[in-house]
Design a protein that fits this description.
3-stranded antiparallel sheet, 31% helix, 14 helices, 22% strand, alpha+beta, Beta-galactosidase, Chain A, domain 5, globular, Glycosyltransferase
């Protein structure tokens, strides 16, 4: 039986990440990168698809978990009738690209305890059984390009294509396990002392966290979100994956299962804000530079997402041998949405550049030339239908949010000239900005509904229009925005959480049914704050904090009826929105995103 999504904790090394269940089982790990094939894939299947479990051999009375301070070192404590043991999991920050370590330490804290471990390695997303050999230090496994060593003083015995062992500890005793991945054509790597790796890892994360300049409320939640964002960054390039997982469902048993192990342009501006307001200028610069490199080329060919290093071919395929989380099929690898036309990403790119300039992030020599090329293309493309922010797999439409973000792109180009003295046809852009603004107000607003609607000519609502006041398109106090907020409150809210859009009309070409979208709920709180409804905004924010798991992690969506998280986990965009909304509510004068319009 699957653990719930929130039963997992995250460990990582800014190259890849693993999900560790509260039962001590690592059920998801891709090596050596986030987007590599999984070698533990039980998350989307069962134990035969690969996992590594360490837990007490007898009955467990209680399990508690925490991160060690402001680090990504996960501590899971098991209490039994005879003793208590803590499992310490972490991934050392690698010093070279051809090696990845994952360390597990078991420490008996009191009494005596018998532990057991089961190690089942399956490369290729749970299908490829490796050739395993015994070595004096443990096990050595190989399949094609991948090789793994498991170093431990505990002798594991093989049976039915799995390896297992039991071992007993008394108070203050400990046992270490070190999993090492390396290319199979390279020499066997040397071993490292587990406690030395632990000390180095604790120092690395503690030093990184100490750079945080956040001084507002909710410090622990904001810090945990920042650490999560750092964990989801790909250090060699500066890219940031939307999540470390694929195909965790937006509705249990449904087909809305997508691969999120890529970098979305849509996340760019909000991510930049989250990093900058916390003082992480270098991370913000790396992310901005990744963005410029990724989109370089013909503006007509700009994608909505890229691979970790800017790769463009993200071909989607199904993995039929994995039954999916809670039988949610299909399991998908790759994401066909990379081929979609989404107008809003042009606004995200231009806004990111604007924000970087405001915060004096050092400029790249060719950035403004690239932006002007994007503007040249946008002049002829802004009035075209697209697949929109939600990446619909139905017909293209004139989505209201997409047009608003096209306006953002032009507005930021105008401001680049006005505020930063860059050269460009500013009068032409001013005229275009007004043209798009008038078009949205004329065609995106439905007077009968007293609300901005999902797309031109529609009567249905879409929570993405909550971004209007946050990007400076209209003030939050504009009667049309106030009417839109009231309509969303009436039709898209469930127990204080906001749905993306109505399930009727089949706008996305998929069966209806999904959880509330957490980013939209944060945007709702931002709108309340901008209207001066601060108490309501804070209540919504506190409710969002309350649904995070015991480690402070959040997925993409939430099921209010089932009271459980849904979608890929943990979700970078959700944690970005948490940071920004906390900033908006912590005594600041204006919402963080709205200031981008200045």
């Amino acid at each position: 039986m699957n653990l719930t999504i929130e039963d997992y904790g995250l460990i990582g090394n800014t190259r890849s990440a693993a999900l560790v269940g509260r039962n001590g089982s690592i059920d998801w790990l891709c090596l050596p990168r986030f987007d590599s094939g999984a070698c533990f894939a039980a998350l989307l299947g069962d134990r035969t698809n690969g996992r590594w479990q360490i837990e007490p051999a007898g009955d467990v009375i209680r399990v508690t978990r925490k991160y060690r301070g402001d680090t990504l070192i996960l501590e899971t404590t098991f209490e039994t009738a005879h003793g208590c043991a803590t499992l310490i999991d972490f991934m050392p920050i690698p010093k070279r690209e051809d090696r990845v370590d994952l360390v597990r330490l078991v420490r008996c804290m009191s009494g005596s305890i018998t532990m057991r471990t089961e190690f089942i390695l399956r490369f290729g997303y749970g299908r490829e059984i490796p050739w395993v050999r015994r070595a004096d230090y443990g096990l050595r496994a190989m399949a094609g390009p991948d090789a793994v060593e498991l170093r431990s003083p505990i002798r594991l015995l093989g049976h039915n294509l799995a390896h297992s062992a039991e071992f007993s500890l008394t108070a203050n005793q400990e046992v270490s396990f070190n999993l090492v991945w390396y290319p199979s054509h390279r020499p066997t790597p040397h071993g490292n002392d587990a406690n030395a790796l632990l000390s180095a890892n604790e120092k690395w994360w503690s030093d990184w966290s100490a750079r945080c300049k956040w001084t507002g409320e909710w410090r622990d939640s904001v810090m945990r979100s920042l650490i999560t964002l750092k964990a989801l960054s790909y250090a060699p390039t500066g890219g940031m994956v939307a999540a470390p997982t694929t195909s965790l469902p937006e509705a249990l048993g449904g087909v809305r299962n997508w691969d999120y192990r890529f970098c979305w342009l849509r996340d760019a501006t909000l991510t930049l804000y989250a990093l900058l307001i916390a003082g992480y200028t270098q991370e913000a610069r790396s992310w901005r530079e990744w963005l410029v490199r990724a989109v370089a080329g013909h503006p007509q060919e700009m994608q909505i997402m890229y691979g970790l290093a800017g790769e463009r071919q993200l071909t989607e395929r199904e993995v039929p041998w994995l039954p999916g989380y809670s039988n949610s099929r299909p399991v998908r690898i790759g994401n066909a949405a990379h081929e979609q036309f989404q107008l809003d990403v042009y606004g995200e790119v231009m806004d990111t550049m604007h924000v970087a300039r405001k915060h004096r992030v050092p400029e790249q020599n060719y950035a403004w030339a690239l932006e002007k090329k994007l503007m040249d293309y946008l002049e002829s493309a802004w009035d075209q239908p697209d697949e929109g922010i939600w990446e619909v797999r139905g017909p293209r439409r004139h989505f209201t949010h997409s047009k608003v973000m096209a306006w953002v792109a032009v507005d930021r180009a105008v401001k680049a000239v006005e505020k930063f003295n860059l050269n460009g046809p500013v009068e032409q852009w001013r005229s275009l900005r007004q043209l798009i603004h008038d078009d949205v107000c004329r065609n995106g607003y439905n007077a009968t509904r007293d609300a901005f609607v999902q797309y031109y000519g529609a009567t249905s609502l879409d929570a993405s229009v909550l971004m209007m006041p946050l990007v400076g398109f209209l003030p939050a106090t504009d009667p049309r925005v106030v009417g839109t907020l009231a309509a969303i409150e009436k039709e898209l809210m469930v127990d204080g959480f906001v749905l993306r859009y109505s399930g009727s009309g089949n706008v996305d070409g998929l069966p209806s049914g999904e959880g509330a979208f957490l980013a939209c709920t944060y945007w709702y709180a931002d709108n309340l704050a901008a209207l001066g409804r601060t108490d309501q905004a804070r209540a919504i924010f506190e409710r969002l904090l309350g649904i995070s798991n015991d480690l402070g992690l959040l997925a993409e969506e939430y099921d209010p009826a089932g009271r459980r998280q849904l979608g890929n986990f943990p979700q970078a965009f959700t944690h970005v929105c948490l940071i920004n909304t906390a900033h908006n509510l912590a005594g600041r004068r204006k919402p963080a995103v709205e200031r981008a319009a200045e």
